[in-house]
Amino acid sequence: MTALSVRVRSYRPQRRHLPVLGALAVLVGAYGFGAVRYPAFGSGQVVLDIFIDHAFLLVVAVGATFVILTGGIDLSVGSVAALSTMASADLLQHRGWPAYAVIPMVLVLGAALGCAMGLVIHHFEIQPFIVTLAGMFLARGLCYTISTESISITDDTYTTMAQTPIPLGAGLHVSPSVVIALVVVAIAGHVLHFTRFGRTVYAVGGSERSALLMGLTVARTKVAVYTISGLCSALGGVLMAFYTLSADPLGAVGMELDAIAAVVIGGTILTGGSGYVLGTVLGVLVLGIIQTLITFDGTLSSWWTRIVIGALLFVFIALQRLIARRSR
Q1: Which of 99, 108, 132, 216 is the most exposed place for a label (fewest CB within 10 A)?
Q2: 289 in helix, strand or coil?
Q3: Quick check: helix, strand or coil at residue 176?
Q4: CA 312 to chain CA mean position, Å
Q5: pLDDT tens digits, one per residue of 155-183
């Protein structure tokens, strides 16, 4: 017996990895069930279509991961994403701005809103739930000041991004939005796991008091994670505009709940200090594959997606609590 085989046999997953492994097990199980029940479900393009359909949610959920890792919450992400699409459509269609100027503008807008909420949370010591709830209403209200009706986007750059597939061979393809989303995931993973800022994020989520005693930049970190969340929300709005080629003041309603659900199902603990970007990716895929299964069935209402996601949330929150108790 080789040393490698001994190490493989003696490996035991750490407790903090169990929620991520649970999300992976749900994903594999759901995909296997779909592949057995529906022959077309086994196609590799089905998985790629989940990425295509949820690229904007993945980016928003990555931003939410930073916030939740510090023990915070951001309820404004869906409204900020909608504001991003509305601002983009208005500047493109009604103001005549070029896309290369519009996209940076809305990204700065999202980051500025996130930064403002982070500053209020830190300096006024108000609960993130209240501040981001106010941010949600503010951003949604700004959507209606731009237009009370949906706006179509006919800009060449946005149309190209929406309609140009990236071939992967064997008849498979993804959209440019998927590539952008995966780049965001890679950058976020590097920042969280290989930089001092990332280690500070985990430390703040583990114990803010301890982080202060260690001399870490707690205030700067808390403001930064909300800025990152706002930036990712705005970028998610841009990707949503690529996907739909339109903007609606009622767009992305409930996206904040989908993002939080994806983060929690992916193993990030709501109290902060533990979680992985890879888990968030798995969480988004779980949401997507549940929706796809219900679509393939054809006899179930789309509301069953919410029912199943709610049940999964209960299961994963209970798993997190169980792990937390055993680790004490």
Answers
A1: 108
A2: helix
A3: helix
A4: 17
A5: 999 999 999 999 998 889 999 999 999 99
Residues 6+ apart with CB under 8 A from 183: none
* C-alpha–C-alpha distance, residues 276 and 230, integer Å: 19
| Residue 224, C-beta contacts closer than 8 angstroms, at least 6 positions apart | 118, 197
pLDDT for the residue numbered 7:
46
Which tokens hold the place of 39?
Answer: 């022959």
Check if the beta carbon of residue 76 is closer than 8 Å to that of residue 233.
Answer: yes
Give the whole-angstrom CA distance, residue 274 versus residue 299. Answer: 39
Instruction: Give the C-alpha separation, 41 to 228, whole Å.
Output: 36
Report the amino acid identity of residue 325: R
Kindly state the average pLDDT of the residues 252-258: 93
H helix runs in 170-265, sequence order = 176-194, 196-206, 208-213, 218-244, 255-265
**Partners of residue 166 on adjacent β-strands:** 174
- The predicted model scores a pTM of 0.93
As beta bridge partners, residue 151 has 247
Give the C-alpha separation, 215 to 21, whole Å: 34
Measured CA to CA, the distance from residue 83 to residue 164 in angstroms comes to 25
Helices (H) and strands (E) in the chain, counts: 15, 4
Domain borders along the chain are 15-326
φ, ψ at 189 (rounded to 5°): -60, -40
**In which residue are the tokens 């750059």 written?**
157
Q: Which two tokens stand for residue 185?
A: 């995931």
Cβ-count burial of 209 within 10 angstroms (0-12 exposed, 13-18 middle, 19+ buried)? Answer: exposed
Assigned fold of 15-326 = ABC transporter involved in vitamin B12 uptake, BtuC (1.10.3470)
